[in-house]
Amino acid sequence: MKDVNVGICGLGTVGGGTFNVLTRNAGIIAGRSGCNIRISRVASRRSRDDLALGNIPFSTDVFDVVNDPEVDIVVELIGGYEAAKELVLAAIANGKHVVTANKALIAVHGNEIFEAAEKAGVVVAYEAGVAGGIPVIKAVREGLAANRIDTIAGIINGTGNYILTEMRAGRDFAEVLKEAQDLGYAEADPTFDVEGIDAAHKLTILAASGFGVPLQFEKGFTEGISTLTPYDIAHAELLGYRVKHLGIARRREDGIELRVHPTLVPKSHLIAQVDGVLNAVMVDGDAVGQTMYYGPGAGDEATASAVIADIVDVARSVAAESNQRVPYLGFSPDAIEDLSVLSMEDIQSAYYLRIQALDRPGVLAKIASILSEHGINIESIMQKESEFKDGRIPVIILTHTVQERQMNLAIEEMESLSDIADKVIRIRAENFN
Ligand code: HSE
């Protein structure tokens, strides 16, 4: 059996998991690859005494891996943008294939990296960057290759979902975040999780791979979960909805919607049932219909599972000396459509609104009239006498789908009424029918 040499850069959570699974399951992985996947070199800023590195050469300089002529596949698990980009471009320039779990790198620099890889005739594989252990990139690029995909939506940050799940049980935000960090789920900078940046990286990659459009991270919309209140989470529940932090990508004739924000989802929808660090991605294909991919979105060995699946893919073609490979984004470069990300004013969504109304006659009529003037249809409305306080009473409204531009205008008008105190709270809602 032929040897294919792998060099691992980075021995953090995912690097350690990759080392352990590759070592523990070497036999089964060789059986599947048809070659012997050998860890021939490892580099990391810090060594790890808990890993059985044995005689495998170890160094603190990741460029020792990139410059080692023996290494066929460089596994980039150092994270971050610039250092990782330099490492990956150097590996490509040295004719090495790359496997990475770095969604930030692919979302932000992917177009440039894929172009360099295409010229050099090497593979850059990134399954582990999206939804941890769930093989959703493989599903979108290969399993659903027959379909025109118009919607991809899901829970694609485990830390955020873990926090929202625990908050529903009444726990404190900061305490739960600390727990997620201790479990190794959170990003080095946890604001990436909490403010939706990590999810936006993953959504950018999913949209590009599913729709056949360029990676456009900088044009997406991102809103985090740090300002969500237990009050709105509980009232969404009363209306039959659960608040989830979703990434939503929609392909339309005039462009694509690319947005990450808290979203009300009907409690009966599968996405609403996904709790804890688990992720779920829904992909709607014109032939297959609605499909869902569910599983652990973070964690050492769960993410290693996806890293190693990519290593196996690349190793098979290295062993077979074949140039047959799936295009980077699942579409040939000349078939990538130049479809831009739409502005948020142009997206279509339903809305949950919380309006702090002064308890006077006619206020509800004024609110209803403003909504109606902007073509906004009310699905349900809730006002509880028991919540009356300091002359104010919250009015909670769920609307049908409308263009965000109309909702912005309606909110502006409502906020200008003397009967309305404070800003109107708005959370977008989706039914995914
Ligand atoms: N911080 C990420 C998450 C890790 O919580 O989902 C996996 O990408």
UniProtKB/TrEMBL annotation:
Lineage, broadest ranks: Bacteria, Pseudomonadati, Pseudomonadota, Gammaproteobacteria, Pseudomonadales
Catalytic activity: L-homoserine + NAD(+) = L-aspartate 4-semialdehyde + NADH + H(+)
Listed Pfam families: ACT, Homoserine_dh, NAD_binding_3
Residues that, per the record, bind L-homoserine: 187
Alphabetic keyword roster: Amino-acid biosynthesis, Methionine biosynthesis, NADP, Oxidoreductase, Threonine biosynthesis
Identification of the protein by name: Homoserine dehydrogenase
Family under the similarity heading: Belongs to the homoserine dehydrogenase family.
Catalytic residues as annotated in Swiss-Prot or TrEMBL: 202 (proton donor)
The organism of origin for this protein: Marinobacter persicus
Coiled-coil residue spans: none
